[in-house]
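[09:14] KT: can someone run the structure on this one? pasting the chain below
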Amino acid sequence: MRRSRAILVAAGLSLIIVAQILYTLILARPDGIRIRSPEAAVPLARSFVVSGDAWMRAGISKIEVAAVPVDQSALGTLTVAGARDSVRYRGKTLFALSTWSIRVELPADGRWEISAAAVGPDGRQVRTADRSLSVRAGTIPREFRSWTPEHLIPLGIILIASIGLGAVARGSRGDRVPGRPGSSRFDRVALWMSVVLWVNELAYQLYWFLVGGWSAATALMLQMCGLSILLLPVMLFSENPRIRQFLFDLLYFWGIGGALQALIAPDIGSSGFPAYRYFSFFISHGLIIASTVVMAMAGGLRITILSFLRALVVTNLLLVPVYGIDQLLRLIPPYDPGNYFVLGYPPPTGSIVDLFAEIFGPSPRYVVGLELMGLAVFGLLYLPWPIARLSRRASV
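[09:31] RB: done, structure tokens below
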């Protein structure tokens, strides 16, 4: 890796890691509560969901949301009680999470100020600052809806852009200008993809922190897509064939497998078009796909049975330390176990992991089901490569 690109990669990695450490330290308060949504700038109907997270070292007995009218004081304050999300197994609550959501129905249009409070067993409270909202009956919610134009159009753009970038970079690694290392089309494509990928990630992390959604239990770069975002520029810029191939073996299965699942079923809730989170989501996951396609089309890399086995082995080797990190996160605010690699608990919103938990038992026993699913997904991703090789041999 040339010096200038090595500096770029080191700087990008350092910025993302430092930002995550900084956000973790800022949130290291014994007690706290935050509202994540709705955002202040989003027009709302009279009925909407308020969500956020709360933590108190001594425990939480209840959470309440208060709504105060700004223009019609005669209406008085509306208070709605709610409860935290919880992880359940066969009808029993295993443990409560810090996240919570409460549906609020307001009686009139206009400006309202909402706040949330968590109350401990001893009666002590922590409260959020007021958030000003504009409410009007009949406002259409900006929920993301799968398989509508707002979903299909970015999928089409990602497909066309991935193939287009691969075609632009294809066969150009040796097309360098004398005295200007890294001036080939491949390197320019790699540079722009890497810069956009990491700038988008840094911007999203800052946005997610500012709106109250960032948490060490959920936002560290320890999921497969997060690790792919960190390592893709290293793969693109490396000039060591062994390092490139090793990273390609991992990132093909992690990146394509994770990003495709995310793109098929986006989990972005109320962040439909044209919310910032909507664009950031499709940019990051689209670039994961595009970077892998560029390396396959223009980087001369291929997936073999050794690649398949290497990805399986490395992924399994990571399970133990990642599970350990998941459990250690219980010790810091918001005192939730992490759920990286989905090892901590089934997602509260529901998923196939619920079926694994029902069959094999709660975490870590349902990892058996995750292993079987991972083997199937990795196998499906590997399959096109031997088929393509057989097709080429048959056509000769």
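[09:33] KT: thanks! The mean pLDDT is 90.
[09:34] RB: yep, looked fine to me
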